[in-house]
Amino acid sequence: MLLPITHKTAELIEVVRITDPIRHFGSEDLTGDEVTPWEAPQADQVLVLVGDLPDGEMRRCFSPGWGIRVHGATGLLFQLAFCFHCHGIRLWGPAVPDGQQGLHSFDADSAPAQELLRRFRAAAERPA
Q1: 62: alpha, beta or left, given left = phi > 0 and alpha = psi -120 to 50?
Q2: For all residues of the chain together, what is the average pLDDT?
Q3: Global pTM?
Q4: Which residue in 10, 25, 43, 48 has its CB near the most CB atoms, within 10 A?
Q5: CA 30, CA 127: separation in Å to the nearest integer?
C-alpha cells in the first residue's frame, strides 16, 4: 500500500479497536477503544508492514475492526481503518494528499496483513 510521504516523520501510532464499524466509511475521526500506543521501533515496523501490503480485490462490506492513528511531532498525520473481511483500508487525515485519501484494497491473506492482524490482536490481549 502506498503510504503518504509523511509516514517517514511518524513518532507514535495509536491502535484502535473499532467498536462502531459502520460509521467509519466517511467519518472525520477514527473512534473506538484505544488499545495501545506504539512508539519507535515498533511504530516503524508497523508502518513497514502497512507499506508492504499487496493490492487485493476489495469486496463490499467495509466493516473495519481495527485502525491506527499515526502521529508526528506536530500532531496527527493520518488515520487508517482496516477491514480484514472485505480487504479494504480507508486512508485519511490532514497530511494525506487528496489523491490518496479514500478506500484502498489489500490482500488480507498476505503475510504482512496477517502479521499486522496478529500484532493488533496481541496488543488487545495485553493487560492494561
Answers
A1: left
A2: 91
A3: 0.91
A4: 10
A5: 23
